[in-house]
Design brief:
This protein is α+β, with helices and mostly antiparallel strands. Helices cover about 25% and strands about 30% of the residues. Strand 10 and strand 11 form a beta hairpin.
Length: about 280
């Protein structure tokens, strides 16, 4: 099955099962988050990345991304092998921003970074341009951390958006606290620097909405997980992947975690997306 056939299958299975709302609404922004690594085949990571399962998984995920066409896409757990392979499939639409890690500039090369960014933000390069970007690796390890970028709409330059994508350590205990604290301080800085610019935070938070660390992450920032706010939001106590937003600037009107049960090789985390509109007066 080629990529176009997979896209047709996703539209046939995914859209039907997700009960999409009436198409009369027009979202300002669509945002997606997707953890891409685990295959569940019991092989080593290197064997997975080099094997047929790895290729099929990327085909499936690329078809998901191109079927739903989010404006901003946060992907987690992309290895060095996976990054160029994914960009080869979706690079006609999406790009990864040039960014800064400390004082070391890192630049896109065949769709991936020289520096170890396993949780890139991606954007629709036909609709947006990058104004600023930063990549920060967590002290916990190389696959943990966050990456954010400030974008400007090409159609309406007065519209700017910040997208942060993160991947936190998997233990919901005090080992997560340094990541939570540092990311919170960065978000406070961004809100002060860009008070009227909406912020989206996608990622594998490795925490449920009810966990205390979620409240600590967004303390005083007027931010919430979209699944809690969308009228047709798919609320779940089990979700550890989230799309959070500045609630004073954007309203989530739809949220859904995709039903990937009929699509083998997708991931251990089903992608989810949310549609947003600007608050009146913004």
């Amino acid at each position: 099955m080629n990529l176009l056939e997979k896209m047709d299958k996703i539209e046939e299975l995914g859209f039907e099962k997700m009960r999409l709302p009436d198409p009369c609404y027009t979202p300002t922004i669509r945002v997606m988050t997707s953890n891409a690594l685990h295959t569940g085949d019991g092989k080593s990571r290197q064997a997975r990345d080099e094997g047929n399962v790895f290729q099929k998984r990327l085909d499936t995920l690329a078809a998901v991304y191109l079927s739903f066409m989010p404006d901003f896409l946060g992907v987690q757990e992309l290895s060095y092998t996976m990054m160029p392979e994914l960009m080869a499939r979706i690079g006609s639409v999406y790009a990864i921003p040039e960014t800064q890690m400390g004082d070391i500039a890192t630049y896109e090369y065949h769709g991936y970074f020289h520096q170890p960014n396993h949780f890139p933000t991606l954007y629709n390069k036909h609709k947006y341009e990058v104004l600023e970007s930063r990549f920060h690796r967590s002290p916990v390890g190389t696959i943990w951390g966050y990456h954010w970028a400030l974008y400007r709409s090409k159609d309406n330059p007065s519209h700017r958006f910040i997208h942060m994508n993160l991947h936190f350590f998997y233990n919901n205990n005090e080992e997560q606290w340094p990541e939570i604290d540092e990311t919170h301080r960065e978000l406070v800085h961004l809100r002060r620097m860009y008070p009227n610019v909406p912020i989206f935070v996608t990622g594998d938070y490795n925490m449920r909405r009810t966990h205390k660390h979620f409240d600590m992450l967004f303390d005083g920032l007027s931010m919430e997980s979209a699944m809690m706010l969308a009228e047709d939001g798919q609320k779940s106590e089990l979700h550890i992947d989230h799309i959070s937003v500045t609630t004073d600037l954007m309203t989530p009107i739809f949220h859904r975690k995709l039903d990937m049960s009929a699509l083998p090789f997708a991931s251990d985390h089903a992608p989810q997306f949310a549609d947003f509109v600007m608050k009146e007066g913004e």
